[in-house]
TrEMBL record:
Species for this entry: Oreocharis arfaki (tit berrypecker)
Protein name per its UniProtKB record: ITB1 protein
GO CC field: cell surface; focal adhesion; integrin complex; synapse
GO biological process: cell adhesion mediated by integrin; cell migration; cell-cell adhesion; integrin-mediated signaling pathway
Gene encoding the protein: Itgb1_1
Keyword annotations of the record: Disulfide bond, EGF-like domain, Glycoprotein, Membrane, Repeat, Signal, Transmembrane, Transmembrane helix
SUPFAM superfamilies for this protein: EGF/Laminin, Integrin beta tail domain
Domain Integrin beta subunit tail: 73-152
Domain of life (superkingdom): Eukaryota
Pfam families (alphabetical): EGF_2, Integrin_B_tail
Gene3D superfamilies: 4.10.1240.30, Laminin
Length: 152
């Protein structure tokens, strides 16, 4: 019974939190917990303490790795550019497409939020339509509200 139960008459009687004919299936979902607090990042099922990713784009032990997904910075670059500087690909559609985050302007890069705060934080360095670098941070709080700080 793989040490997780007692064999009685050639049948395993499993200890709590274990199941299966050989008690080899853990019901503990802790190993399946993704960094966002969801089981298998909401993109899979936890089976015997292991994630079975149901979204084919996602893989890894907690279905958080996505090789083909745009990074947070690239994904939000156009919206930050139009909101902060009134230019870029989404300039004409900015008010329809890019109001999903709170934006704060800061004077310099050292005024950007730093890692160590409770919300996950991405530091971004992207090129604008004029081939100039601009810097911003993107974070999402526990209520799912997105916040951007951009260097003027």
């Amino acid at each position: 019974c793989t040490g997780n139960g007692i064999c009685k008459c050639r049948v395993c009687e499993c200890f709590p939190n274990f199941t299966g004919s050989a008690c080899d299936c853990s019901l503990d979902t802790t190993p399946c917990m993704a960094s966002n607090g969801q089981i298998c990042n909401g993109r899979g099922t936890c089976e015997c303490g292991t994630c079975n990713c149901t979204d084919p784009k996602f893989q890894g032990p907690t279905c958080e790795m996505c090789q083909t997904c745009l990074g947070v910075c690239a994904e939000h670059k156009d919206c930050v550019q139009c909101r902060a500087f009134d230019k870029g690909e989404k300039k004409e559609t900015c008010s329809q497409e890019c109001m999903h985050f709170n934006m704060t302007r800061v004077e310099s890069r050292d005024k950007l939020p730093q890692p160590g705060q409770p919300d996950p934080l991405s530091h971004c360095k992207e090129k604008d339509v004029d081939d100039c670098w601009f810097y911003f941070t993107y974070s999402v709080n526990s209520n799912g509200e997105a916040s951007v700080h951009v260097v003027e």
